[in-house]
Amino acid sequence: MEGLKAILLICDGMADRPVPRLGARTPLEAANNINMNTLALQGECGLMDPIAPGVRAGSDTSHLAILGYDPYTAYTGRGPFEAAGIGMDVRKGDIAFRCNFSTVDGNMLVIDRRAGRIEQGTDQLAAAVNGMQIEDVACYFKESVAHRGALVLRGPGLGACVTDADPHEAGAKVHEAKPIDPNDQAGAKTAGIVNEFVRRSYAILKEHPINKAREAERRLPANIILPRGAGVAPHIESFEERYRLKGAAVVETGLIAGIAVYLGMDIVEAPGATGGLDSDVMSIGRTVLKALEDHNFVLCNIKGCDIAGHDGDPDAKVKMIERIDDVVGMLMREVDRCTYIILTADHATPISVKDHSGDSVPIVFWGPDVRVDSIQVYDERSVVGGGIVRIPGTAVMNILTNLMSTQEKFGA
Amino acid sequence: MEGLKAILLICDGMADRPVPRLGARTPLEAANNINMNTLALQGECGLMDPIAPGVRAGSDTSHLAILGYDPYTAYTGRGPFEAAGIGMDVRKGDIAFRCNFSTVDGNMLVIDRRAGRIEQGTDQLAAAVNGMQIEDVACYFKESVAHRGALVLRGPGLGACVTDADPHEAGAKVHEAKPIDPNDQAGAKTAGIVNEFVRRSYAILKEHPINKAREAERRLPANIILPRGAGVAPHIESFEERYRLKGAAVVETGLIAGIAVYLGMDIVEAPGATGGLDSDVMSIGRTVLKALEDHNFVLCNIKGCDIAGHDGDPDAKVKMIERIDDVVGMLMREVDRCTYIILTADHATPISVKDHSGDSVPIVFWGPDVRVDSIQVYDERSVVGGGIVRIPGTAVMNILTNLMSTQEKFGA
Description:
Two copies of one chain form a homodimer. Chain A is an alpha/beta fold. Chain A has helices at residues 27-30, 34-42, 59-66, 71-74, 78-85, 122-129, 185-205, 209-216, 239-243, 254-262, 281-291, 304-311, 314-334, 396-403; strands at 5-11, 44-49, 95-104, 110-112, 132-134, 137-143, 148-154, 224-232, 247-250, 266-267, 297-302, 339-344, 361-366, 389-392.
């Protein structure tokens, strides 16, 4: 594929706050990230608020925003993106749920929400409950990794404002899903379908040979499916329709993959990508370059920094940044002169917070024709004073497509 | 109350423009405000636009925005906030007016809009007209300071788009309130009620013993009530619902108190607070500390700088800033390590303008875990280059609740 191309490298949770153990420096400030600094030296820098200043973003809402979709309208809960991420056909108006294979006793008391952390055979269990018709609603179910799966309901008059069947704790009885507003007929219909699906899943799964075999081995049977987190599938213009760019995604989590699939981007798997601190990040980088051969935009999410942040481990975060820095160096060497690299984070996951925070994150635009500014170091505080100043996440694709000259003019 | 706390110190109208008499420095630049500078040195700084860049804010709209409420939807005129501020029960949908006790002659010509600047007895006059029922509308009236008061109408089918009964000048005849749009039935109904209220107030007040006594003393009787500035009471989520913070307000004006009351915050009175240049600002500071004992958020508004700005008096403004600087120093010494201080202004009141302007104002966030930046001086021009860069007023509470970890995550 010819012409201008772009790599959007999102280092999950990389931004941080000053860490006492690092001498009041952030992990980015403490890390030896010479390639990121070169990117800053040769690029245009600033701060980015994934959603808005101070707003704590999830990885899903942040990625939607950075890809140019208003998360307040495009984000209707995790269900639809999770389902899309495992390859299910999700259509506008469908109601989608995240689900667990769980273990219950004969009184519907939850023994284990994760069915003994089942790893094998869920594809056959899923096939046994997939495609049910309940009243005028088609119920599609597919397994995800381990004990996880997703349920998609398709039919007239459904609503997403329903409570979870999953009681979220062992020892509790399976909940009856209910409409959140008792007068919401669409919610009531969905709740009725979900409850019937849960009952039927138990009737089918408790007799399934896979579970009989598990019980014979004294393992917990995956004898029920418990849906949670209902969301109505939103209508979202595809990435290609919106930007006239053929996009690929090289990402490490199902949630981000789901968003990419939902936007019609191609998923390209990187060998050795684990989503953990041990991930083969250089393999991810090489996969990005490969994806760039037949796409002109590649979204790349590397998860490790977020894990280190959630763990509150500054040394692991610094090390992860330095490993990603090697990838940045490789990308800068390998791409041609027609390729942009944007380096940023989807949110901060500060060591002190051990969760996502609403702090701003550094961003750099590198590539042909950018207004190179005076910033020479890539970190949260050094980018202040750069040409990008401070932008919301939804500005990123506009700035990029402006540079790539693929954006239509607004007005005359 | 344990855990993280915050003081939001808003110095009314403190920001300014370069003043020739101060050597082209702003009052903040000219003042000896070493404690504010220390706050900047130890905090994260930037510029804040209360509403948006260049937009001239009132103190009411600015405080709403800084407290995180979109003023374009939450602000429906002064009436509802004024009424709430003097302790009236204002409910969503009520129509509220600011009012004057005035003096008219028998032909309804206004002799004095302020009824001889009446100071005493308005509580008894108010009681005489309070609680009227006109058609199906209940009319509540309460006196405020001096010749002022507020009227609240409660009933079905009322609208706020009506003209004032107050002609706004002596010598003119009392106006008939009218709907702004002749086809607006809700406005027409309100106008009819207002006109009847005004007529009845004259009938009742002209015979009232307080006014008979005033006339005997050759003072102007407060013989009519003239409403103006109709506003429909908005539905606003309370401060505690929105932020899960227990909030108090130590403020110097009824207007700001009204906003705080409307948001469900507790009002704490500071002894010696006058709202003027002579106000006991140190007492205000001590009251803030006291309020912090059983609240985790205290809004403090100190009015003096705004007065000096309206007066066009640079020396008075510098002096006021230096007196507030002592309060800032005291607060920094007295608070524990779990307390944030945010120092800003609700708008500029430039010496050259003698009124509110739409200039940006400096802001600093000081407290645990902030990304301390390189800024060392707190004034309008020195904070440029700080980590906050430039934010709208509505971002302030998001940034604060992000630091305080009381904000829910948007997404996963």
